[in-house]
Amino acid sequence: MGCMVEEHREKLFKRFPQLDLMVGTRNLRDLPRLIDEVRQNRTQVSKIQRDGISIEYTDMIKRKTRDHAWLPIMTGCDKVCTYCIVPTTRGSEVSMPARDVYREASRLVDEGVRRIMLLGQNVNSYNGIGTRFPQLLEMLCEIEGLGRISFTTSHPQDATEDLFQVIKRNSKISRRFHLPLQSASDRMLKRMKRLHRFSEYQEKLERLRQLVPDISITTDIITGFSGETDDDHNQTMKALRAIRYDGAYIFKYSIRPGTPAAKLSDNVPEEVKAERHAQLFELQKKIAGENSKAWFGRVVDAFVEQPGGREPGQMICWTNQEKKVLAQADPSMAGRFLKIRLESLRHETFGGVIVNAPVGATS
Ligand code: SF4
Description:
single chain, five-stranded mixed beta barrel, four-stranded mixed beta sheet, 11 helices, 16 strands, 35% helix, globular, binds iron/sulfur cluster
């Protein structure tokens, strides 16, 4: 089915060479934005389409900086989380064929990109005509000049031993793993239809840490979901203490019309949600601060991005764990991976000192 669509698209582009954009029903709601993007950036849209990559598979590739691009590789979701509107708005999962992801990533590297973030609503359930996500990562690691590959967002069910082994084997893959928890109460996980128990989630993270000891783990949490009791909330607090995440996005639940959970009553009072949110937030802030301080004195590989920070001569750098560091460096070092010693912390940004000549991928 996918190939027929591709063939049809190719024919249309041949027949109408002036065509800049082809939009499937999946993207109808995005039409005004896509037209704006074509207006602002005709060349890029046209080129991506002619290379055979369809906006039906993906939103636009975004360049965060000269060296950093976001590359959507799949869209939609086959999971059924009751609070989430994605399966309704985006439909079922569609993955860009692996050869197209590889070609697009190579093209970005040719244009000077050194770091690519792979995007998908459920990125680790990627299935590009038989190529699963771990294999795709290994393929992309082969691209010469590509220095770092990261990805988001992952679902615990698709966080497999295969994926962990690929991360362990390939130092180009980011040492930050974002794995949404949402709640540590099995009762809540069941109401959310997250398809796993907390113990399974925790075992996976333990295995990942065993294989990749320098991995940084971050998460998402929803507090005050329908029916959440003090006991459910306390289980999530306990999980934060046990797992010790490096970062967490914590949200207060609110009904999203059109989701299955909209039929459940939003029965946790607003002040209770606010209090639980504050407790989770304060605990996580303390843990993240302690985790960060444990990095003091360590020498890490970091990518030198661009000038930034308050002091003259500072460059913004990013460690393999995606931690931001400010260090004195010559602007000519931008686009390189260097070794940096982490020495201080201000809010969530490290201060560091460059300790060696460039390593790894360079400009
Ligand atoms: S929360 Fe994520 S995994 Fe669950 S339905 Fe939404 S997109 Fe899919």
